[in-house]
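This section describes the prediction task in plain terms. A model, or a person checking by hand, is given the sequence of a single protein chain and must write out its three-dimensional structure as a string of tokens. No templates, partner chains or ligands are provided. The sample shown here is typical of the held-out split.
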Amino acid sequence: MKNCLILLTNYYPFHKGEEYLESEIEHLAANFRQIFVISTMVSNSMGQTRSVPDNVIVLPVGINHSILGKVNMVVRQYKTISTDKDKKTMIKQDTKGKLLSKLYCYYFESRAMDVYEQAKEKLKNYDFDQYDSITIYSYWLYVTARVALELKNDYFKKKNPLTITRAHRYDLYEYAAPLKYLPERDYLLNGLDAIYPCSQDGVDILKKTYPAYVNKIRVERLGTISTNVVCHTKNDKLYIVSCSVVRKVKRLDLLIEALVELEQREMPYSWTHIGGGPEFENVKKLAKKKLNMENVHFTGFLRNQDVLNWYKENPATVFVNLSSSEGVPVAIMEAISMGLPVIATDVGGTREIVENEMNGYLLKNECTITDIVNCFNNFCKMNKNDYNKMREKALEIWNERCNAEILYSNFTNNLTKDVISKRNENSYVG
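The expected answer:
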């Protein structure tokens, strides 16, 4: 079958982020004759940072991320949007008359249409009549999904493409959004053929909030590849590891407060945080103020291979993630793939890969410092046999629920079946 896939990403394969795609793209490439990756948030100054299979063509959309650039974008698009009766009606219904939500929705629509216009110009350079079928795959239930629908309803209107999206965290959980609102949910869910949250938690929330679309929504998990690394530890102290972008949502300040308690109890520990981010300097200052820095190590940002090398060369007893919001955390997947037990908060899809007292400890989102310290204390008192059981369970859960080779093979095989079904449907209608 001569099939074609159009994959809409934020940055991949430029910059960083969307690391899951680095392994998924190989499976997609094996199932589609040609893939076009439209990178929707790439600035003109960015260079490609990751390689792609031979049958993948990368089409970056040049975006100016400055405030002035965003203002100009809205100015370019506002007149067209505001004079379109259907869009005006949709935005009015979607925002329920709330001014801030309305402004947000106009910005969202402007951004999506600006990306769409640039993507359309790039796609004009290719002959799509040669393909038996076209599939449009948005990696996010956000701007990329809106662009996907515009491609479906306008540029590829005559081809009636299969149009799908994944959904993760910021693009899924409305309660965690700044205005407790995400634009055009009903419009997107109505127009897309299938929506794939990466966790069962995400599926349950979408189905509960938008029951009209339950038949379109199913879980499609993300995964990590086998690291061929097995963590080791020592008995002289508790070796604590965390790995994330340093943002407020990661609540590293809460972890620091728990470590203060460890020092007060004279419980020996070593904490390493892997990763940088917008709150990096603030977290470092807080740690210097409250902790004995002989026990603390900040690596800053590390590439994935360097993270694996760190685990090879350093002891680790437990991985900690105290986020207030998550999808299904890749850092936890990587940790359990190495047999590292976890302490984590029960948010998003975390409970789907961390089982309390099996491969670690699952805490309430509103956990106290004492709750966290008690978990650390459990690891300090744990005998070798019980600790090894946790390690074995961590590896077992990873293989069952997070193994990218299995997950992406199943996903792409199912997607191929859906493409064939859609092609047959189009042939019948034709």
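For orientation: The two ends are 18 Å apart (CA to CA).
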